[in-house]
Design a protein that fits this description.
The protein has 262 residues and is of the alpha/beta class. The chain has helices at residues 23-34, 46-56, 72-86, 112-140, 161-181, 202-205, 213-221, 230-241, and strands at 14-18, 38-43, 62-66, 91-94, 143-148, 186-193, 252-255. The longest helix has 29 residues, at 112-140. The relative contact order is 0.14.
Length: 262
């Protein structure tokens, strides 16, 4: 049982958060630190990653690692560094993702380059990360992998052909991994955020003070009548990363203000 009021929900665990320098990733890094985990920030943005690590170092052990999730050698180097320092890795949050105007187009307008970018970052990155940490977690006989998909990995929309495909792949891959490695005490779950304000969606949504037409439309179709904050998603990640979810694997946690319930 978790003690009431316990704010150390991942105490003494070691975490790696990809795409950790901004948005959902940065909120997750902060939350895991606040709840007792040592945290590695994996990102391609060296300046922002190091800046965030410096800002949060008062909360505990936090270190930036340059990590392009689509490159196998980057994953190998990152896990090697973590094992050299911490000797274990308990939590992997596969959060790095890409969504831009090119990846939001319909099928006929989607270029091969846009398709391959979506797949490389959003799904191949999850595969490479999972495959690289599995031997570590198998040896420990424990571990939690949290893969960030999307509500667009479950339902369709008027655009985003390559984005939908890449996030749908994450959903299925999560379930396959969960079944294949449950016997080793490794849990693998996916989170499916709805419309969320991040640096990646700022151009699409506008700000909380001045929404674009699309931002206003998304607020309107969300039953709870607001666009999500990175912290809304980070709380779900914290739950799946912690031992509170020790009997949860292969699941999909939708955090979307009610959009998919309609």
């Amino acid at each position: 049982m978790i003690a009431k009021g316990n704010n150390q929900r991942v105490k003494d665990k070691v975490s790696l958060v990809t795409g950790g320098s901004a948005g959902i990733g940065a909120a997750t890094v902060k939350m895991l630190l606040e709840h007792g985990s040592s945290v590695y920030i994996g990102d391609i943005n060296v300046e922002k990653g190091n800046q965030l690590a410096d800002e949060l170092k008062h909360l505990g052990f936090v270190q930036f690692l340059e990590l392009d999730v689509g490159k196998e050698s980057h994953w190998e180097n990152a896990i090697s560094q973590i094992m050299k320092t911490k000797k274990r890795l308990d939590i992997l949050v596969n959060n790095a993702g890409v969504s831009n105007w090119e990846t939001r187009k319909q099928v006929l307008e989607t270029s091969l380059d846009a398709w391959e970018l979506s797949m490389k970052v959003n799904s191949t990155g999850v595969f490479l990360g999972t495959r690289t940490v599995l031997p570590v977690m198998k040896n420990q006989k424990s571990g939690s992998i949290v893969n960030i998909s999307s509500i667009f990995g479950i339902a369709g929309s008027k655009g985003g052909a390559s984005y939908h495909a890449s996030k749908g792949a994450v959903r299925s891959f999560t379930k396959a991994s969960a079944i294949q490695y449950a016997e080793y005490g490794i849990r693998v779950n996916s989170i499916h955020p709805g419309f969320t304000d991040t640096l990646m969606t700022e151009e699409l949504h506008g700000s909380t003070h001045e929404r674009t037409d699309e931002g206003s439309r998304r607020e309107e179709i969300t039953p709870l009548r607001r666009i999500g904050k990175p912290e809304d998603i980070a709380y779900g990640i914290l739950y799946l990363a912690s031992d509170e979810s020790s009997w949860v694997t292969g699941s999909e946690l939708v955090i979307d203000g009610g959009v998919l319930a309609q």
